[in-house]
Every structure is written in C-alpha cells, then in structure tokens.
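Posting this for the archive.
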Amino acid sequence: MIENQSGTRQRRRSRTEADRLASEYEASGLSREEFCQQKDVALKTLARYVTRYRKQKSEGNGPQRWVEAKVIGQNGCRAELAVLLSGGRRIEVKPGFDTDTLRLLVASLERM
C-alpha cells in the first residue's frame, strides 16, 4: 500500500489484477461509478486500467485466460451452460450440443 497526498492509503495492484478488474468492469454492465463503488476503486484508476486493457485487446496482446469450469446438473440432469465473454459476447449451449460446432465458434471468436 502507498499513501496519497490526502493521507489515505491506496492499494497498489499488479498488472494482472488491474486487467482482471478492467475485464470484470466490461462484463459487469454497471456504470463506472457503480462498479468503482462496489470494488472500492477510484474512478481515475479504473479509467486507466480500462484504457490500457482495451489497447492490449485491440493490439491482440490481451491476456488469454482460461479458467476451469464445473458444470453441475440438478438431480443428475445435464445442465445448460452460458459463458459471458469480454466485449459482451455470450456463448450458450444446451444439453446434447455439438462439440465440433462449439470448437469452430470459439476458434472464430479467438481470431476476432
């Protein structure tokens, strides 16, 4: 933590943390003010993170993150799955979906 001019403490975030916050903001659907209030982040700080994050993405240098997902159906039923991607893109699949088609879709989105 570092102290700013007004004497309050600010948290120094790593580049990974800053990118994660920017990504979460873009996917949240919240206004900057609402997001900053919920995450306890200064507006100017979030603006800087989002600007840098968008620049990385537009240059094709955006972070490529995959996370493990567990699909748990209720009562042994297979569940529907929805994945919300940055930029507001959403992928939804229902039980019995064609995995080859999903692979093609993901590959197409990665080229964008």
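Residues 2-58 form one domain. The mean pLDDT is 76.
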